[in-house]
Predict the 3D structure of the following.
Amino acid sequence: MLEIKDLNVHFGVIHALKGISLTVNEGEIVTLIGANGAGKTTTLRTISGLKKPTSGTILLEGKDITHTSAQERVMMGISQAPEGRRVFSEMTVLENLELGAYLRSDKKEIAKDLETVYHHFPILADRKKQIAGTLSGGEQQMLAIGRAMMSRPRILLLDEPSMGLAPLFVQEIFNIIRDINKAGTTILLVEQNASMALQIANRAYVMETGSIVLSGTGSELMESDDIKKAYLGG
Ligand code: ATP
């Protein structure tokens, strides 16, 4: 579904992505793990069109979208839930979700997708009239994912969905991610919680300072001594 070839990204003199290549097949959960500053967020932002690469190619179902606008990419089925609960804090939960569908005009289908989001996140249904900024951190994270789902993506890019959450919420978020995937959405998941990410991922890539240094199935990487030492606490 998604193929990245030899992608280079710079911020001024900083060479943030150094020729990375990766693929995500339809129906998969693929995770990108790595330390702070490895380039995970930059990879997602380049896929969603928010950051322009210096060179390299991004293909969506074989079509070159390297120079396609971020808005068009949303319409083509790519949607990103940003890191750090970036919801519109002064708007209600429902208004945030409706904004996720702002490029769509198929009202009946939008209403169906709203029900799907409420099915995955019942708390958002209970709180639909609440001002988003007053939600708990975990609830805001759910809202950010729900909003990304409202564009009905074929591939959902999730940036650190577990960040800053209490352990109980972390488990819940990962369960929901698995459910969303089972219901038919392909997922590219960036995580610092390598242990949880590898458990739910079909495949994984490990990034270090702008390069992909290792890849394999989730279970292969969980068994790798290097990964255990570097990311799994032993
Ligand atoms: P984290 O988990 O800490 O968010 P990350 O793996 O997502 O890390 P990125 O945010 O992609 O890492 O950053 C990769 C590199 O690019 C870092 O060295 C970072 O300082 C640099 N970088 C990212 N965004 C910018 C920017 N807007 N301007 C300058 N440098 C940037």
Q: What stands out?
A: Residues 11, 14, 16, 34, 36-42, 192 surround adenosine-5'-triphosphate (CB under 6 Å).
